[in-house]
Specification:
transmembrane, membrane, single chain, about 130 residues, 2 strands, DUF4190, 3 helices, mainly alpha, rod-shaped
Length: about 130
């Protein structure tokens, strides 16, 4: 038996200098899957609902929370994003404080209307 020729670059073996050494491929998992993003409209709905609470029934903020909450829910159903709980929280806060704000304005207008009506019924001015 003949010995294989001597390789000056690494011992005995193949004499082809262009042959690549064997490479071991390790296929590890790519890490945990990324969680879906939160829907921006849901976050906005919740923030507007909280601002409506802080402003004690700011109707403008509450209506914004309601609108953004409904849009967020439809987007979440369509895209599968996260944030359904925030959208629901914004909707609940929005509806509650829009209703409280509406009741407040009805009471205020009713009190002032009754005061003006009683002044008109009394027959004139008091000065």
């Amino acid at each position: 038996m003949a010995q294989p020729p001597y390789d000056p670059y690494g011992g005995y073996g193949h004499s082809d200098p262009y042959q690549q050494p064997a490479v071991q491929h390790h296929y590890y998992g790519g890490g945990p899957p990324m969680a879906p993003r939160n829907n921006g409209m849901a976050i906005t709905s919740m923030v507007l609902g909280i601002i409506g609470v802080i402003t004690c029934g700011g109707v403008l903020f509450s209506v914004g929370a309601i609108i953004f909450g409904h849009v967020a829910q439809s987007q979440i159903r369509r895209t599968g994003e996260q944030g359904s709980g925030m959208a629901v929280a914004g909707l609940v806060l929005g509806y509650i404080f829009a209703l409280l704000g509406l009741i407040y304005w009805i009471v205020v207008v009713g009190i002032y209307g009754a005061a003006i009506w009683s002044l008109n019924e009394s027959g004139g001015t008091t000065y």
